[in-house]
Structure formats: C-alpha cells, structure tokens
Design goal:
The protein is an alpha/beta fold. The chain is 37% helix and 16% strand. It contains 23 helices and 23 strands.
C-alpha cells in the first residue's frame, strides 16, 4: 500500500471527486496541505485577498455550473471565522462548498494556542457537517463523507478542519482504490404524481412555482417541458430565475414583496392551485401567509423532508429531488393526455405581463436607476451571467432585467451579505471563462471586499462590474422612512482629491485602477450604453475586471411593500410597456 501524508491523501481525493480549482490563502497551519497541492501539481489555485472573499469565490464557482463544488482553503483561527459568512450564504441557498482549514496541533487544541479556535463548533449551525479530524488515518474517510453529504438531499456546505500534525502524518492510502460514496436521491412515486395531477385537473387557474432546487438539480429543461405539456404558467422564485426563459409564453413573472413583477403578483393572486417545486416559500416571496395562501391549494415538492410544512402546511407534500419529480410528472401527464385546455388562463397571464409593467425610459440627470437596467438589457445578450446580492440595485435588477438561462442569475438569496458580489463574480468567471459575467452592486456592496478586484487583475479573470452609485445605503434609507428618519445611511462626503464628484465621496475609478483593473464613470443616461460597450472591449483586451460606475440621483424609492397585494409604486405607471428583450417606453397609438 502506498504511503503518503494525510494532506497528500486529501489532495488526491479532491482530484478524484472532480475538483480542479481552489480559492484560498496559505498560512502556517495549512502549509502542509499547500505543499501537497504543489507536489500533486494538477489543482489550480486562486489567491484571494480575504478569506471571506475566497469563500464567496467558491460559492460563485459552485453556482455557475451543475456538478461544480467550490473549495475554499485557509489557515487556522481567523481564516475559519472569516469563512463563516460564506458558509452561511451557501447553507441558506443550498449550495455545496467545501471549506478546509488548518488547525493547531492536536495536543494544543485546548491550551489557547496561537490562532487555535474551535472552528468546528462555530461552523456547525451553517454547515451540513463540520469536523476537526484528530487522527490522520481518518482524513480519507472524512473527505469521502464530506462529498457524499454535500451532494445528498438538500445540498450544502461542509467544513473540514485539519490540525497541522494530522496533515503531516504519513498514512497508508492508495488513490487508485478510492471511489466516491453513493448518493441517495428521493424520487416521487407514480401514485404521488397521479394525485398531484388530479389536483391540477380540478384547478382552473394553476401555477407552478419553480425554486432554486430546480437549478440545483439541473432540471430546467424538464420544468419547461412539464409546463408546456400541462399548459401551466410558471413563476420562478429569485433563486429559480432563469429556469424558464423570461420571453417564454408560460413565464408568468416573479412574485414577492421586492424582487417581483406587478404581473407576477397579480397572477399569483388570481390562481387557485400552486405547485411548488424545489422552493422554500421564503418570506420575501410570500409576504403574509394568509394573503399568499387564501383561496388556493398547494402542492409542495422538495428534496428535504423538513421543508414540507415548515412555513405552511401544503395540501399535498412530496419528498423528491426536483429532477426526479419532474421526470415522473411528465411521464404520468403524457400518459393521461389529452389534458385540459389552459389557453384562456395562459392568455390572461400573458395580458397581465404585457400591461402591468414599470417604467424605465427616464432621461433625468442625475440618472434614475431604472434607466441603467434598460441599457443593460440592450447591451447584454441572453448568454450573460448576472451576479448580485443585496440592496436596491439587486431589487430593481430583478424587477427589470431579463434572464433566459438557468444559472445566469447568480444571487445570494437568503443571506444577502454585502461584498458578496465581486468575489462571487470572480468564482463564476473562473467556472465559465467563455461567457460574459456581469456583476451588479450598489456603492456600499462594492466597497465591501473591493480588494478582491486585485485577484481578477493578478489572475486575469475578466468580468464587468456595474456599480450604481447614489452614495447612500439606499435600501436601509428606504426602510427608515417608516421610522421617519434618515440616520447613519449617508455615504456622501466631499472628496478633497476628486472634487468633480461633487459630494459623492469615494472615487471608485481611482481605487479600481489602483487595484490593477479598468474603470469608467457615467454621468448622463446617454452615456450608459456606450460605456457598457466600451467595458466589453476593455475586458477582452486587458483580461481584467472592468467597472462601469453610474452616478445616480441620490434618492429613489423602489417599488416594494409588506404584502403581495399591496406593493407601493413610486413612479408613473399609466401606459407603460416593456416588450422583451428591450426596455420600457410609453405605449404609442
């Protein structure tokens, strides 16, 4: 039996589990692992500037392609605690990432050694499994179990903590004998599918709610097929956006309090049956449960048994992987053909989609944010991968951008950590270097973890970062309206080095250029589209991230509310249309 260090065995297992890329930072307690990576020679490594940034790169890498698992590596102590936000974000959105940390020697774990912290206990609430491996011979089994857990049931992250002496210990291990553990996948039964389809047959105005579980299961094509076979319109959640193309005749819009469409909310309220697949009934999707559920029945399909009934009790709950469920539903539906004629209901949904729009064609200076998304729709095609996380920028993007492919809207849905967008976009670009990646941030999100732009410059990872700058914590300011205050949310100040910013504070152009990237600033709406086109050229020429900063009006109140039947609209709506894939304009005779 070959002998090697436990660290080398871990690296060999990573390769046999399909891992090709690592994101992280070396340090004393994890250096044996890095030595094994160097000796093995096959894994690529991206050196982050912050371990939290590395964890978000791993997330972006996972989210970009089916089957990917991002791996984040850091040393002992603060490296592990820095990963917690990434682990939380991944756990909340059912994203498998593997975080590997170094640790003090086993004998020193409870002696307050330098940078020795019980990261296993700290990480437990935000992982599927968190373990400190105390015996070198258990390292292969720990990694084998980690990959099985990340892929089984509801996907999620794992943390493996490796004391330095465990890494250095030699063990008997033959990589050629290694095999991944089998994955158990729950599958909808035929009787369950028949029951769901009988409920569908009894409904007059049914909807499908497509969640992120459909994206995770790589089942978007099956979702579209099921919708077309049954003639049932589809409402994607924020995490499921792209599972059905925005311009598909059965795409009925998103529902919710913030990241929603007027037509999506109205269609949900008009429905009498909702079939949720791979979704979790998030509160910003539903609003109050009474408003959301009253007058309609629900079928809920999810891979995680404890999700059924967690928010409200469905009329029918089915534990199943989304892909497996759709395969069975399609099979049973085709056997029962011909199905009901849904043309009247789908026509009503399309009419709402045609008429219940928001306006974007503003010519104001300073620029209104809606105009930015109008120009982005013009500048970027259906293959573009968008990355965003939180704030008014993300909310309006979801209201006004168009997404046509699964995994082309990549978003930290539940956690929404500021600073996530930039490093996640780098991870997406590493996973799919042939596709245009466009990140979208407000100025505050952009300033968090801004140092990771240097990673893109160093490793030639190009993407476009659109920054909508109003020098405000815009979402928090809007939320403070109910408390009649505007407190601690202003980011504006007179920059003595860039007076031409006229009080907008940080000179993002100088910062970005100082980090080795390219930057453009736009002050008038007519300049947005040319700047986006120029950014594409700069990205291709220099192979680095390119920021396009758009200076916005300071205050814009964005459409949202506390109930899906009571969304507050702040802009004129009469006569607005928004034909896909262009943006809105006033209806002409």
């Amino acid at each position: 039996m070959p002998r090697m260090t436990a660290a080398r065995a871990a690296v060999e297992i990573l390769r046999r589990e399909g891992i090709t890329n690592l994101f992280g930072l070396p340090g004393a307690a994890i250096n044996p692992f890095y030595a094994a990576v160097r000796a093995q020679g096959e894994l690529k490594h991206v050196l982050a500037r912050h371990v939290e940034g590395a964890s978000h790169m791993a997330e972006g890498y996972t989210r970009a392609r089916a089957g990917n698992i991002g791996v984040c590596v850091g040393t002992s102590g603060p490296a592990g605690t820095d990963m917690i936000t990434g682990l939380y974000s991944a756990s909340a959105d059912s994203i498998p990432i593997l975080c590997i940390t170094g640790q003090a020697p086993v004998a020193k774990l409870h002696k307050e050694d330098f940078q020795a912290v019980d990261i296993t206990e700290i990480a437990k609430p935000v992982t599927k499994w968190s373990v400190t491996v105390l015996e070198a011979a258990q390292v292969p089994g720990a990694f084998q179990k980690a990959f099985q857990l990340m892929r089984t049931g509801r996907p999620g992250p794992v943390l493996i903590d490796l004391p330095i002496d465990v890494q250095l210990t030699e063990i008997d291990f033959d990589p050629d004998l290694y095999a991944p553990l089998p994955i158990a996948t729950p599958r909808m039964t035929v009787p369950q599918a028949e029951t769901a389809l009988r409920m569908l047959a009894d409904a007059e105005r049914p909807l499908i709610v497509a969640g992120g579980g459909i994206i995770n299961a790589d089942a978007a094509d099956l979702l579209v097929e099921f919708a077309e076979v049954t003639g049932v319109p589809v409402v994607p959640t924020l995490m499921g956006w792209g599972a059905i193309p925005d311009d598909h005749r059965l795409m009925a819009g998103m529902v919710g309090l913030q990241t929603s469409h007027r037509y999506g909310n109205e269609t949900l309220l008009a429905s009498d049956l909702v079939i949720g697949i791979g979704n979790r009934w998030a509160n910003r999707h539903t609003g109050s449960i009474k408003t959301y559920t009253e007058g309609r029945k629900f079928v809920h399909v999810d891979i995680e048994p404890t999700q059924l009934g967690r928010v409200f009790a469905p009329d029918l709950g089915i534990v199943s992987d989304a892909k497996a469920a759709l395969e069975v539903l399609i099979h049973v539906a085709r056997e029962n053909a011909p199905l009901q004629d849904r043309s009247e209901w789908t026509a009503a949904c399309r009419e709402r989609k045609r008429t219940l729009q928001r306006r974007t064609d503003f010519d104001n200076v300073p620029i209104k944010p809606q105009r930015v998304y109008q120009e982005m729709n013009k500048a970027f095609g259906p293959d573009t991968r968008y990355v965003s996380t939180i704030g008014l920028s993300q909310i309006q993007a979801a209201q006004m951008l168009h997404v046509y492919r699964p995994r082309h809207w990549i978003n930290a849905g539940q956690a929404g950590p500021l600073g996530w967008t930039g490093p996640a976009a780098l991870g997406v670009a590493v996973a799919d270097p042939g596709t245009t990646v466009v990140a979208l941030s407000g100025d505050y999100d952009f300033q968090f973890l801004i140092e990771e732009l240097a990673v893109g410059a160093q490793f030639n990872i190009p993407y476009i970062h659109v920054v909508v700058n109003n020098a405000y914590l815009g979402l928090i300011r809007q939320a403070q309206r109910g408390l009649d205050m505007d407190y601690c949310v202003q980011l504006a100040f007179d920059n003595i080095n860039t007076p031409e910013l006229e009080g907008y504070g940080v000179d993002h152009v100088k910062v970005v250029e100082g980090l080795g990237c390219k930057a453009l600033r736009v002050l008038e709406p007519e300049g947005i589209l040319p700047a986006l086109d120029e950014a594409k050229k700069l990205m291709a020429e220099f192979q680095v991230p390119v920021m396009v900063e758009v200076i916005l009006e300071r205050i814009t109140n964005v459409s949202m509310g506390l109930e899906i039947d009571n969304i507050i609209e702040f802009e004129e709506l009469e006569g607005v249309q928004n034909p896909v894939p262009t943006a809105s304009g006033l209806v002409t005779p």
